Amino acid sequence: MRVTREQAEKNRERIVATAARLFRDKGFDGIGVDAIMKKAGLTHGGFYGHFASKDALAAEAMTRAIEDSLRWQDGLADIDELVSRYLSAQHCADRANGCAVAALGGEAVRQRPALRSALTDGVRAQIDRIADLLKDGTSKARHRRAMATYAGMVGALTLARAVDDPDLAQEILAAAREAFGDHVATSHRASSRR
Amino acid sequence: MRVTREQAEKNRERIVATAARLFRDKGFDGIGVDAIMKKAGLTHGGFYGHFASKDALAAEAMTRAIEDSLRWQDGLADIDELVSRYLSAQHCADRANGCAVAALGGEAVRQRPALRSALTDGVRAQIDRIADLLKDGTSKARHRRAMATYAGMVGALTLARAVDDPDLAQEILAAAREAFGDHVATSHRASSRR
DNA sequence: TGTACATCAGTGAACGCGCGTTCACTGATGTAC
DNA sequence: TGTACATCAGTGAACGCGCGTTCACTGATGTAC
């Protein structure tokens, strides 16, 4: 049954937002069009009125997921707080609403160019944001440290989620929080001056 | 046609070894039983004479992949060399023969317990190995630094592979090599003494 | 050592299910007068 | 503003392909005598 244009647009939005969460939670191959549409409160048949293919939705969903993962950091002015939140038990447990790069980075290599491009934009944006929070050094040096810090964050989250022992997971998160918090960002600077 | 028991055992081995490489290259959902058997020089029908299911093979292949990814480090006595090799352009390009944790860590959450358990063993072994290469500090402190270093390595490799810009990928690898090489392992120690 | 039979590793056709995609249809919305 | 018709968002059945799994069969290996 037909629906207002406004409502149709809202539906489309909801599909993208739902997919952005479900893909992060279950992976691109782990969730189907049918399940996404059902979760969005629609039936699968209408899908192709909104998107050319599942891949096309995946690319849009990745863009959305990247936006989501950056948004929670808005207003954070402290690298230590950023790192603590990123490496929190909460973020570790909540794949669906967490960092898209950590959740989908490993699968992205095999996805469409548009999707990889969206992810790359997200990586760049995240590196810039971390670099902005590092106070000392040239822009170039801060970006270098930001890349290493971001790598540490993504890796620690990936490891903590992959491992089947909750204690080990917590140890990894704690070790990374200590290593990549601001006091070490400082020591990185010191070492790169050597 | 029947084959020597010895040959059958070799075939089984080859299936596991092939799968260990193909899964790392294409992901668990990205490669089928048919393709694995073909690559191993057999036909798919014989598969279930060797394994109970694709999942069962995946668990064995993960164990094998973990062993592979640890073996190339044998004889390395220098943390800097370990980090350099792990974060080399070569390792970045060669998913199939590289670190199983970086290649499959993101998908492991959704796999069988046996597979996750194999991966967890691998993570522990890798952390121990890095800790052994760090010369100063208590065992506990070295393990803490090893976890952060390993996280940085896995994250940097994941990011470099995920991104669609080769220049950015190289920058990330270079930044991580600088940050997680031994001179910074030293500065980590310094900072944890603060 | 040689022979006869049982075993069983590997083959390839076939099955069945899941999932991406298509399509005829419905009925509410949008529009022309 | 009201009426008549065209449009089209969403529905649900159906299609077709890929893939994990099964199975009857083959013929070489393994074994009993």
Offer a few descriptive terms:
homodimer, 194 residues, mainly alpha, 75% helix, globular, disordered C terminus, DNA-binding
The number of helical segments of chain A is 11
Largest sheet: number of strands, sense, barrel closure of chain A: none
Largest interface, counted with CB-CB under 8 A? A-B, 60 and 60 residues
Label the overall shape of chain A. Answer: globular
User: Could you tell me the radius of gyration of chain A in angstroms?
Assistant: 19 Å
Distance between the termini of chain A: 69 Å
How are helices and strands ordered from N to C of chain A? HHHHHHHHHHH
Calculate the mean pLDDT score of chain A and round it: 93
- DSSP strand (E) fraction of chain A? under 5%
Task: Work out the number of β strands of chain A.
Answer: 0
How would you describe the oligomerization state of the chains in this entry?
homodimer
Helical residue percent band of chain A: over 70%
| Overall SS class of chain A | mainly alpha
In brief:
2 copies of one chain form a homodimer. The first copy, chain A, has helices at 5-26, 33-39, 47-50, 54-71, 79-86, 89-93, 100-108, 113-133, 139-162, 166-180, 182-193.
Would you write up a description of this structure?
Two copies of one chain form a homodimer. Chain A has 194 residues and is mainly α. In chain A, 75% of the residues lie in helices and 0% in strands. Chain A is built from eleven helices and no strands. The radius of gyration of chain A is 19 Å and the shape is globular. Chain A starts with a helix and ends with a helix. Mean pLDDT of chain A is 93; it is low at 183-194. Chain A binds a DNA duplex (33 and 33 nucleotides) through helix 1 and helix 3.
